[in-house]
Amino acid sequence: MKEIKLALVAGARPNFIKIAPIIKALEKYNSLEKNFFKNLYPFDSFRDIKLVPLRDFYFPEIKFNYTLIHTGQHYDENMSGTFFKLLDIPKPHVNFGVGGKSDLTQISLMLENFESFFERNSFDLVLLVGDVNSTLAASISASRFNFKIAHVEAGLRSFDRGMPEEINRVVTDSISDLFFISEISGYENLVKEGKNVSRLFFCGNVMIDSLLFNLEKIKEGDFFKRIGLEKREYVVLTLHRPSNVDDEKRFKEILSAILDSKIPYPIIYPIHPRSRKNVFEFGLQNFFSEKIESGKIFLLDPLGYIDFLNLIYFSRFVLSDSGGIQEETSFLDIPCITLRKNTERPVTIEFGTNILAGTNYEGIKRAITGVLKSPKKMSNPIPLWDGKSSFRIVKHLVEFFGER
Predict the structure, then answer these.
(1) Is 240 a catalytic residue?
(2) Which residue of the set 70, 93, 240, 272 is catalytic?
(3) Which domains does the chain show, CATH number per domain?
């Protein structure tokens, strides 16, 4: 039997949420559970792009052995053994522990760690998810060791080089060998960049795979009730992007626009430690209330995966500068106002519930007023966001290595 050695790299909680369903799909393949690999593509074409019909899936003599690498990019108290048990994946086999540093120092330390680790361990393929610093460092290191590279969420573009994540995406895609695409804009961007179309695979969104795996727990949860909230009678705010929370003027302008919009519901803000620190350093405490009340912003500590999505699921709408939340709210049909000037996930605007408000006072107020009057809902299901994305990825990995 041909053994394929994979390195799966993650550095932050969202990365593990994306890696988890891929690990499950790899284990299903290794156990020869064929039924999970049937009927993975419900259509032959999308827009003007012809998807080559896939032959009946076969199980060649391949076994995947994987090593789960945690760079330690983000320290998260919620990322305990319970977190990995919830995702139904093992704890990382390796943890570099490089968190708590500036971006460039962090990347430098990751490169050192990857060099040492890859010198001692050879891999047939390094699989990367997302667009964090860990993705960039792992792609550069794997390329130097001539390991094949697969990028999940390939081709997403904000076209804003002021975003560190955009640099990470572009560089990673420039040296990857296989591209697993979550939405059609990714395909179009990679074709424009001259990538070999035979290595572009429209697979769907692995984050939605994890969401669906945990959906019953999310629906049955009562976190929102435990903190005294009523269904659809509150708003969720997440704000963590450095361009928003490290800039005193912008942070204040965003908070002012939210409060001046006279939202008739409590606004619940699970706040990142960095953002909380800036609230006090910038003297913004007057924007927040110590109790949950209508039209006021109430701070919570960061939440675990299920409690956070439970809070999202039963909210009236969400205000956020996150990338992943644009996807999760769209799938859950919860209106989302994105507090950014651009998005690398345009499908969430075209098909989903996302509204791009910008970061200026008038734009944010206008978006909030619009959602209060007429909440944006899903227009159509987003193609291939159906819980089978990870199985498509494994299927394409099998075909790639089966041909070699």
Answers:
(1) yes
(2) 240
(3) 2-204+384-402 (3.40.50.2000), 216-373 (3.40.50.2000)
